[in-house]
Structures are given as C-alpha cells and as structure tokens.
C-alpha cells in the first residue's frame, strides 16, 4: 500500500463493525440535530485506504456523499454537475449499470473546479452527481466515506433512470423535473423497470465487478494486469 498505487474500499465497515458503528450513528445523529429537517432515508459508511501516489480519475457518484479525512493529504477537485462537465446520458448509463462512473475529462476544466487539500480532521461534501477527481498528495491516506440517500437524491435518480429506460424504448424524454405528477409517475416506472429487469433482464456482470488485476509487490504500481500476466 505504501509503495504502490492501490485503493482499498472497506464498504459498509462503518455500518457493520461493532467498534465503528456507534461512531457512525453518532455522526448522523449530530448532523440531524444541527440541520433541522435533514432526514436521510439511508446512509452507508465505508473506510478508504489508499497509497501515497494513488489517484481517482474524473467520475461522478449516484449518491450524495460526505468524505471525512483521517490520515494523509488528499487534493480534491469538484466540477459543476451539468454540461459540459456532466451529461445526463452518462448518468442514465451509470444508473442502468451499463457504464462505470468514469467519464471523459478535459484538463482545461480544472479552471472551473473547486480545489481543496484535505488534511486530517477536515471533510468535504459536494452536490449530487457533481464530477470530481482526487489525488493523494502526501502519505498513506485514510478517509471515511458516507454514501447517503435522501428524498431529493432518490427522486433525481429515479427520474434519470426512468428517462434512460424510455430512451432505451426509443422514446425521447425531455423533462428532468423532480416535482409534480410526472416525476412521481417516473418514480413508479423506474421501480417497475428495475423489478422487470431482475426477473427477465439479461444476466451480465456489473462494470468493474470482475477481477482484472493481481497484487504484485514487485511492480511500481503494486499490482499487475491479469490480461498481461
């Protein structure tokens, strides 16, 4: 880990571990107390451990995210969640599990990014679907990442997922509004589509779900590509 370019994501460790779970529950109890009306539907906490030279390329997440930094120095760049930095068809593909969260990137966009260095004890959050990229600047990095589902993010994702489903049926949806009867209809349609795909949809692996590398302590990156092994 200290010599390569690796990331370890201990997913839901903050929800499941007997030591960390009370800390995670206390964190969200404090957030609700300090922010009246903040009522997440669900929240999942993972622990990220990454090599000093590791980076995360330009991508967007489907959930609202809060990252609390514990160890090392990490540089965050956050970009606006709309075109040209983000295109809705990309999010539709991600929500339909046809694409990974990685997206095309233009280095010139750095001029439009909010850039910050995270040190131990600092935290960062960003708008839903806002693209971002991360570079480790100093030392082995450890962070806690909180993936949160709220009513707002649930509706936004449902509308985009429904639009993507309609597009796959040859239709051309135009509205991305999360308000009104049309949005509620898209929420119901999205749920029905997902249920139908579970029953009759094609069985295919999630993007990036396969094992594509082996840990190799002799390599500069700390791993080797299986295809080239």
TrEMBL record:
Domain of life of the native organism: Bacteria
Disordered: annotated segments: 200-221
UniProt cross-references to SUPFAM superfamilies, sorted A to Z: Clavaminate synthase-like
Gene3D superfamilies: Cupin (2.60.120.650)
Protein name from the UniProt record: JmjC domain-containing protein
